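Quick one before lunch.
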Amino acid sequence: MPAISVSNRLRRTPFSEGVEAAGVKAYTVYNHMLLPTVFRSVEEDYRHLKEAVQVWDVACERQVELRGPDAGRLMQMLTPRDLRGMLPGQCYYVPTVDETGGMINDPVAVKLADDRYWVSIADSDLLLWVKGLAHAWHLDVIVDEPDVSPLAIQGPKSDDLAARIFGDKVRDLRFFRYDRFDFNGVQMLVARSGYSKQGGFEIYVEGGKHGMPLWNALMEAGKDLDVRAGCPNLIERIEGGLLSYGNDMTRENTPHECGLGKFCSTQTAIGCVGRDALLRVAKDGPARQIRAIEIEGDLPPCDRHWPLVAGEKQVGRVTSAAKSPDFGTGVAIGMVRMTHWEAGTELAVHTQDGPRRAIVQEAFWL
Ligand code: THG
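Model of the (6S)-5,6,7,8-tetrahydrofolate complex:
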């Protein structure tokens, strides 16, 4: 593979120095920013993530800040999830849709105050859509991208590592809640969340200058826990059914097709711009949906859509796939037509290296 050239357009992060010192082997580009993808190997990183603790530079999860009297109204315009019960101190996973009900992002919303939210975005330029809405509706709100960079602690020893830096109180934090904790005299927003199923925290570092001191403190404090620099792991996130915007779903998909119906309450999400469109399609339910798919045999990188085929007919496609060491088989995420989405259905998947046997699964592996 040729390399990807770097420039100022491909933004570094407050933690890039630490990531490089840790020997990062590969990056992807996410929200026009560097996101590490490999340190030792995807398999070694996977094993370590499931057994120890890692520190992840996920600064590319950029924040879109909504601030002002109309922040709550604007926030509800973005998502079919009913936000009326959301309180400061809570994070919500919020499928975000356009006027057709198509997915435009799947961020984590952080409610800082009744008039202030952060929207921690996946890989699409949500800022532009939110600014457009605020302007067109003459809303009394400021929308911008603040200097806030998430750093994740993930893995089974996350609580032990976090407690050494933030104190034992951090252990009491509940899933998708946040609180403020002191680090060297700076109050930091720490949430129990993150893009893995191994448990952990995300620190929303406010001010790039605090990045490397926190990174170094975590690495120092976690030596005997075998802490390492890590990153979202392809194998682990597929096993866990964590979706990747741009890979597993696009504007062509509704939240229901993505299996995100449980995060929607379209009926009561008054003001959501995609509400009418979603109510229209909700009547019949989706005709295709995300499924966990087992694939037999060796797998090349899933860098293109792999057709899922029954006989001669295409009935879906695989959008993410990797060989799982723990399950001894290929694990994958795909979109499958309802005629073939039942668990146990046997299909063929056409990879660039040829066809493989694929079986639709009951659920994800983790
Ligand atoms: N953390 C933060 N920002 C993010 C991500 C993150 N922005 C980009 C990307 N990840 C957004 N996508 C997701 C996808 C899944 C989850 C979070 C963000 C997630 N899902 C839980 C699950 O599926 O098990 C359930 C969440 C819930 O029950 O509310 O955590 O990771 N800051």
